[in-house]
Amino acid sequence: MARTSSAYACTECGWQTSKWVGRCGECQQWGTVEERAAAGASLARTTRAVAPGLGREARPITELTGESVRHRQTGIGELDRVLGGGVVPGAAILFSGEPGVGKSTLLLDAAARAASSGARVLYASGEESTGQIRMRAERTGALHDTLFLAAETDLATVLGHIEAVDPALVIVDSVQTLASGEVDGAAGGPAQVREVAGALIRAAKGRGTPVILVGHVTKDGSVAGPRLLEHLVDVVCHFEGDRQTSLRFLRTLKNRFGPTDEVGCFEMQDRGIAEVPDPSGLFLSRAAAPVSGTCATVAMEGRRALPVEVQALVAKSATPNPRRVTSGVDPSRVAMILAVLERRVGARLHDQDVYVSTVGGVKLAEPAADLAIALAVLSAITDRPLPHDLAAFGEISLAGEVRPVVGGAQRAIEAARLGYTRVVDATAETLQSARKHAGL
Fold it and tell me: What region holds the RecA family profile domain (predicted)?
């Protein structure tokens, strides 16, 4: 009989090696190489066919209905928008975000709203005690008789709570704090995270109960643990925001039941997190009269058009190397726009300090803000304010052309709804003509 040998493989990318190493040689991940049976040994055994159980036979797709998996609203409009209409029964949702951004507060609010409708909700936390959760619930008004709390770090105990409570919604905060006695390794390791997530997802699918898993993030903002975790779940949501501002955004990175380009807007308040259905005025200044160096643009956050004000300040530099300071915009893109302005428009910027910022702490990453940045800088140079009813959006090329951007019609409609009667966009053709249209 041939001797069964052992091999080691990476749980992330499948890379194999004959001996154990701490770091995968392919994907460079640490702690993901585990021992498994060699390919020859796995081929020596075959799996017998088993007849499907009663009610589990394969059926034609035309005979099946989707009534049992319709979206159910959570009571939070912005959360339902991002999820595609609500929570689907049996769905597994991964909720990630930076520490302190408000993940637990938002999910506790969602649990309370579900409990207020009479549904039984289980909130299992491995990071806080039940007393700490109740303290936050008192502050946010999330006290309900059908909201059950459990402070557990053992997977089997959490599964036992699910059996005992029989909830309509399960929230686990977080998946990295739970551990299974069936698997070696500390909580949060790749093997433990994979086992914990797999068990909770199987329970959700088997019972038809949606489960929301809170996940930690790494330094680069990705979900901690094996990449397999994001493949196992149905929905991956990321909650983001700047600690210097109260605004929070919820985005979907994966959604099997809805779109992935929707964005939910929330505001952190003393009594918890409040949804912001219409954030149109959050990113505009309140100046009574037009001020030079400001220009409004319309940014797209998912399918939502948001007006944003860009501000620029140009001052004589006292150093040989002028400063280029940005906040909320891409610094490399601003440097390119300044070069185009100096070369194509004749603006003198090589000996000027330039400061560019957005109002409200919003971040503009799309090239549609190029034209607004350029007009704001030109307005600051000439010290001539732009009309208060003017909005601009468009991408600027190195040749000084103004290119059309995605969602131009929707941006123009949103600008008109907010009272911007003059819109400068790709119809200006060049930066020189855009400058004339803006009155500079």
Answer: 68-217
